[in-house]
Amino acid sequence: MGTLHHFSFGWLTPTLAYLMACVGAALGLRCTLRALSATGASRRNWLLTAAAALGSGIWTMHFIAMFGFSVGGTELRYNVPITILSLLVAVLVTGAGVFVVAHSTHRSRALVLGGLITGLGVAAMHYLGMAAVRIHGAIGYDLATVGLSVLIGVGAATIALWAAVTIRNVYAAGAASLVMGIAVSCMHYTGMAAVQVHMHPARTDLDGATPMQFVFPLAVGLGSFLFLSSAFVALSPTAQDRAAYRKAGELTVEDLRTSELDRAA
């Protein structure tokens, strides 16, 4: 068996990975909250943004953490199509979970179903991402630890969806995002603890892209998307803000009319 290293860069990769998970969770929760107070196309667009934020945040967290993963005696590469598929799965399943919860009239049942869908999808993203790894050997798993990682993923997803539809306070949502970051990170490293590598003596060239050629630019791009989207959402007015603006505008018009009537009298 090969010697596994999960923290090749010390605490740098888990810290950055945790940060990205928190940012994705915060943006996803905020967009879901906006969706619940919107209707029609606006609600759909907020939900799509929430799905993209949650899915890409979890995916980015996974692959930033993977920069700290190495196996003694072999280089590491990624199969590009499978890696992209893992990203699509992350976005699609989180989107399914968010839509189930947002459109259901039975909140408790929707949370259970949405958490199950999203949690299984997050686990599928993780193990698809691992299936994309190419080394001079074979990667296996301890099934009991895999099962534990899936349970953590389902629990984390359920907590996230509950927070998205329950918490209305910005500070509470921020705290929920920090908790979500911890839960997603625990799911990742529990899944990585299940990894078992059996080295092959052959030294043929590995197919796929190196982390710096493909995964790093994609992770940086998604991270930039999350931070820019967070700034946009933070600065965009809420439904309550728009209602207040309209009311203020109506009051201003009414004041002008009253003033004109007073002068005419």
Can you give a write-up of this model?
This protein has 265 residues and is mainly alpha-helical. The protein has one domain (4-236). Helices cover 75% and strands 7% of the residues. The chain has helices at residues 12-36, 40-66, 80-103, 107-131, 143-166, 170-193, 211-235, 239-264, and strands at 4-5, 70-71, 77-78, 133-134, 137-141, 195-199. The strands form 3 sheets. It has a two-stranded antiparallel ribbon. A two-stranded antiparallel ribbon has the order 3-4. Strands 5-6 form a two-stranded antiparallel ribbon. Helix 1 crosses helix 5 (143-166) and helix 1 (12-36) packs parallel to helix 7. It is elongated and about 60 Å long. The N and C termini lie far apart (95 Å). The model is unreliable at 241-251 (pLDDT under 50).
Distance between the termini: 95 Å
Q: What percentage of residues falls in helices of 4 or more residues?
A: over 70%
Number of helices: 8
What's the number of domains? 1
Radius of gyration: 23 Å
Largest sheet strand order: 1-2
Strand content: 5-15%
Derived from helix and strand composition plus strand pairing, the structural class reads mainly alpha
Low-confidence stretches: 241-251
Count the strands? 6
SSE blueprint:
Layout: E1 4-5, H1 12-36, H2 40-66, E2 70-71, E3 77-78, H3 80-103, H4 107-131, E4 133-134, E5 137-141, H5 143-166, H6 170-193, E6 195-199, H7 211-235, H8 239-264
Antiparallel strand pairs: 1-2, 3-4, 5-6
Quick rundown:
With 265 residues, the chain is mainly α.
